[in-house]
Amino acid sequence: MTEDFWMVLMIVGGLSFMLLQPLTDRLSRIEAKLDRLLALQGIDENKWQEPSAEVIKLARAGEKISALRFYRKQQGAGLKEAKEAIEKYISPNT
Q1: For residues 38 and 76, is the Cβ–Cβ distance under 8 A?
Q2: What per-residue confidence (pLDDT) applies to 66?
Q3: Could you tell me which residue, 85 or 89, shows the higher pLDDT?
Q4: What transmembrane ranges does the database entry give (predicted)?
């Protein structure tokens, strides 16, 4: 029984490796392509931090939509990230 268990475990492990390796390779290729696209667009994925002075100025002036558009264009961020980034500058506490 112990020999059978180890044999089955080896077979399952080998099959898992054979099935997962192509997916791992494909994921690596997709990530490389995405990195190239980000570089071509001048987008730094770690850049989604503080808005520029102009975005803050627009947000504080009540130009929320303009601030969102400008931030997204500058940062390459999605709508949700842009909204979260500038919301703190349009709150009454600032």
Answers
A1: yes
A2: 93
A3: 85
A4: 6-24
7-60 per-position pLDDT tens digit: 888 888 888 888 888 888 999 999 999 889 888 888 766 655 678 889 888 988
Domain of residue 56, residue span? 44-94
Inter-axis angle of helices 79-90 and 64-75, nearest 10: 130
86 and 48 both lie in a single domain: yes
Question: Are the C-beta atoms of 47 and 75 separated by less than 8 Å?
Answer: yes
**Shared-domain flag, residues 49 and 91:** yes
Residue 11's CB is within 10 A of a number of other CB atoms, namely: 10
52 and 10 within one domain:
no
